[in-house]
Structure formats: C-alpha cells, structure tokens
Structure prediction request, 166 residues.
Amino acid sequence: MELNEAKEKYIKTWGTLASQWGTNRTMAQIHALLLISPKVLSTEEIMLELKISRGNANTNIRSLMDWGLVKKELIAGDRKEYFKAEKDALEMFKRIVKERKKRELESIIQTMDELQSIDDQSEEGKEFKKVIGDIHSVTKKSNRIIEIILKLDNHWLFERVVKILK
Prediction:
C-alpha cells in the first residue's frame, strides 16, 4: 500500500469511527489529517485535502480547538492561520475523555440529581426512584473513576497499563 492510499484509508476510517461514537465525521477527518501531518496546515490545505467547504473546515477546526485537540499556530510574515494537532496519544485520549465526560456524563448526573427529588410514595414512584438511584450511583462512580484517571501522571498510568497487558 502506498502512503497516499494509506493516509486516505486512515482518514476515512477515523471519520467513520468518530461518527459511530457520536462525533462529527468531518471533525474527526480533520483531526486525523492534522495528526499525521508532519507540518502545520492552513485551512486552505485542509479544505483541499479533504474536499470540504471553508465553512465546514472552520466550524470543525474551532470544535477541535474547543476540545483541546488542535492548536492554532501563526507563522511570521504569513497572514494565514495554521493548525496542528496534539500528537501525544495519551494526552489526546485524556482530552477526549475529559470533553466527553463534560458533555455526556456530567449532564446525566445533573439529570439524575433532579429526578431523585420526585415525591411519590406509590409503588411505581418507589420503583422509579430505585432505578434512578442505581443509575445515579453508577454514573457518579464512573465520573469519579474518570476524574482519577485524568489526574494520573502519564508515566504512572502507562506503567500500570503495560503491567496489566502482560
């Protein structure tokens, strides 16, 4: 397989996986392109490579920047904006987990907090509160585990994972 074919396959696969995880396909493809690029890329280069519109490129680049996965870089004497991806795989993973936690898990916890305040002593109400309480407990524990993982030192975590995988 030649490099261009491999790059295209990787970018398409990254986009497909992202859409299966509930993330924007184009955003993931831009991220994939920036991950494998040995140099910073301009919006125009991204548009050309992925055959997308300026609006689509700008919107998704901003989203990637919001997630902390992409940074803007300015080149002296050039008015264009250039972008580069966080290439440390563990750091990238932690940023994705942190953002998904914020967007998904924390909203579930907030909803479960609100739902637990139901005041209904009927059999149906008690069952509802029990189920909500169980879900709330699991989501809060998951949230705490994720917080611990996000605070761990990279080397410590890596060493533990390697020991588990052996």
Q: What stands out?
A: The CA atoms of residues 37 and 84 lie 8 Å apart. The chain has a mean pLDDT of 87. The beta strands are 41-42, 70-74, 81-85.
